[in-house]
Amino acid sequence: MMDNYDESDMVYCPYNKEHKMLRNKLQQHILKCRVIHKDTVDLMVCPFNNSHLIPEPQFYQHTQSCEDRNIIVHYQTSAPAVLSEDTRHPKIESEENWDDDESVPDYDPQVYCSRANIVREPNGLFPAQRKAFIEQEKRRHFGEDYEEEKKPPKAKARADPRPTPYEPRRPYSRRQ
Ligand SMILES: [Zn+2]
Ligand SMILES: [Zn+2]
Fold it and tell me: Name one GO cellular component term (predicted).
C-alpha cells in the first residue's frame, strides 16, 4: 500500500528512521513517538524551518545541509557580493591614479588610448622606469612643455615642424 505513494511525499520520523510515513502524518506521529523517546532523544527545531525537528546528535549536520538553509544563505551572501564587486573596481578617470596603484590591473584601455599616441604597457616596469613613464604620459597629455622637475624643454622636439606620433622620446632607462 505504501509503495503507491510518491517518495517525495514520504518522510521519516526524526526519532526513528524505521518510521516512514506521509508528510501530513508526521506531526501526529511525532506526538506519539515523543512519548516513547523523550527520555533518550531530544528533538531540536531547525532554525531555517520550524517544521524540521532534528534529533540533537544530527542537529549540526542538518543546519549545514537543510534545504531551506540554502535559500537563506544564498540571499544573505549574494547581496553584499554585488556591492564588493562594485567597490573593488573604481573607475580610473585621470592619470593621477597611475601613481596610486603599482600594478594597474584595471586600467581602462579606452581612456588610455584616447590620450596616448602609442599604446604602451606600464606593467612590469621598475619604479624609476614607471615614474618616467608617468611623466612622459603627462607631457603627452599636457604638452611638450610640461615639466614636473625643472628641466629645459627639449629643443629638438620644438624644432621639429611636424611632430610624429612615433618619435621615440626619452627612454625609460635613462631616468634614474
Ligand atoms: Zn516515530
Ligand atoms: Zn531544516
Answer: nucleus
Domain ranges of the chain: 2-59, 96-174
Distance CA 139, CA 148 (A): 9
CA 125, 133, 123, 167 torsion-angle sign:
negative
Ligand 1 centroid to residue 40 C-alpha, Å: 13
Sequence-distant (6+) residues with CB within 8 A of 68 are 46, 48, 49, 52
Q: Which three cell numbers stand for residue 74?
A: 544564498
**Residue in the structure block whose three cell numbers are 603627452:** 140
- In tens, the pLDDT along 61-92 reads 998 899 888 776 666 666 555 444 555 555 55
- What's the pTM value of the predicted model, to 2 decimals? 0.35
Distance between CA atoms of residues 24 and 136, nearest Å? 77
